């Protein structure tokens, strides 16, 4: 079995590429289950977050969040783990440029921009990535139009031990660094990598999600 420290180093090196680089990786298939770490902001509740991420009933969330004792009482700053299908998608302007992501339909309201929409997903995506993965010009996003909000994900890498079944898309938040993630998860990372997202491999015990299948 590959030593965990080496495994984590390889995974973080591969996962921390920019979205533009990820878009050209030439995927051919996705996977049924990926995870995303959503950082809860003030004045957000689980009903609102569930509606953003296509979850029909927020009471499904305990599958991946057993530490939430009361789903009707959450605190800003907590991280919510959400599950979704990781698909192999193509850029609308370049069908041969493929990338792995979950896709979430979003109905645009009057005056919204790529930046304002991306902000609601709390660093799981960016305005630049939304513009790259949708056909609307930034100056002409139609009121009532449907935008595909794409969140990059991972289905694993060659050589990953079989117990690592799921990968978590983990955005670094303000004040969080590669060093702090290294300390939290006890593996080495490369601090010179220019990215705000890493993919963390999880076992069934880590993720509490192997019994759950994304829709």
Automatic annotation (TrEMBL):
One of its GO terms (molecular function) is transmembrane receptor protein kinase activity. Residues 106-141 form the LysM domain. GO terms for biological process: innate immune response. The lineage of its organism: Eukaryota, Viridiplantae, Streptophyta, Embryophyta, Tracheophyta. Pfam families: LysM (PF01476). It is a single-pass membrane protein. It is found in: Cell membrane. It comes from the Eukaryota. It comes from Setaria viridis (Green bristlegrass). PANTHER family: CHITIN ELICITOR RECEPTOR KINASE 1 (PTHR46204:SF2), CHITIN ELICITOR RECEPTOR KINASE 1-RELATED (PTHR46204). GO terms for cellular component: plasma membrane. Keywords: Cell membrane, Disulfide bond, Membrane, Signal, Transmembrane, Transmembrane helix. Residues 1-22 form the signal peptide. InterPro entries: CERK1/LYK3-like, LysM. This is LysM domain-containing protein.
């Amino acid at each position: 079995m590959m030593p965990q420290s080496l495994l984590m180093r390889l995974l973080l090196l591969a996962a921390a590429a920019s979205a533009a680089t990820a878009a050209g990786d030439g995927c051919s298939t996705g996977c049924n289950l990926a995870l995303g770490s959503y950082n809860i902001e003030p004045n957000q509740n689980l009903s609102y977050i569930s509606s953003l991420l296509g979850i029909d009933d927020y009471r499904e969330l305990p599958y991946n969040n057993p530490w939430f004792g009361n789903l009707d009482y959450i605190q800003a700053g907590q991280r919510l783990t959400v599950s979704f299908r990781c698909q192999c998608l193509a850029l609308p302007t370049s069908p041969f440029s493929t990338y792995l992501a979950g896709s979430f339909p979003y109905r645009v309201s009057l005056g919204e921009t790529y930046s304002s929409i991306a902000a609601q997903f709390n660093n799981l995506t960016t305005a630049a990535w939304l513009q790259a993965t949708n056909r609307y010009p930034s100056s002409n996003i139609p009121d009532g139009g449907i935008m595909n909000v794409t969140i990059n994900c991972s289905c694993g890498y060659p050589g990953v031990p079989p117990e690592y079944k799921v990968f978590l898309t983990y955005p670094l938040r303000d004040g969080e660094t590669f060093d702090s993630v290294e300390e939290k998860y006890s593996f080495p990372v490369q601090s010179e990598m220019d990215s705000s997202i890493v993919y963390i491999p999880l076992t069934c015990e880590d993720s509490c999600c192997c019994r759950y299948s994304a829709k």
